[in-house]
Amino acid sequence: MGNIVAIVGRPNVGKSTLFNRLTQTRQAIVDDEAGTTRDRNYGKVEWTGKKFSLIDTGGWVVNSDDIFEEEINKQVHIAIEEADVILFVVDVLNGITDLDTQVAQILRRSKKPLVLVANKADNFDLHYSAAEFYAFGLGDPFCVSAINGSGSGDLLDAIIAKF
Ligand code: GDP
Ligand code: MG
Hints:
CATH architecture: 3-Layer(aba) Sandwich
GO molecular function: GTP binding; ribosome binding
Keywords: GTP-binding, Nucleotide-binding, Repeat, Ribosome biogenesis
Function: GTPase that plays an essential role in the late steps of ribosome biogenesis.
Helix content: 25-40%
Number of helices: 5
Bound molecules: guanosine-5'-diphosphate, magnesium ion
Radius of gyration: 14 Å
Family: Belongs to the TRAFAC class TrmE-Era-EngA-EngB-Septin-like GTPase superfamily. EngA (Der) GTPase family.
CATH superfamily: P-loop containing nucleotide triphosphate hydrolases
Distance between the termini: 14 Å
GO biological process, one term: ribosome biogenesis
């Protein structure tokens, strides 16, 4: 099946937008409302001759914080089991939330190869905000804007370097 990369993170950080950017498709459903991506979505990516499968995790069924927490934990654990590399997506516009901290803790314990993605870094000023994500202890945050595509080449380089 080849290398598998899973995108995890709390709702609304831009996982599906990033999935679309990296797979260059509109496969994932992107919506302003948290809770849109019903199922995990698979796509193929090829970068500098290397191929991998990308999974957009989802399954946020109801708008209850408790369910979110339970669902996100489930998705993160599935990703830890199935994936070779995890993309942990956070959001520079909203900064660190409790749910981010919780996911970071699970990922840190798993010792799974991981790339920390600071999404919504739409302009250079926002890159400075990404420094707060060093607090996770998960290495350097990669600043990207899934919406305008900036940083996606460097991110892809970082992903394939983990295989
Ligand atoms: P998901 O719930 O993590 O899959 O997030 P979505 O991909 O559905 O995106 C949630 C919202 O964030 C949508 O309104 C997107 O348009 C927005 N969004 C995603 N990526 C970016 C980005 O790079 N910059 C900005 N400003 N907004 C983004
Ligand atoms: Mg989504």
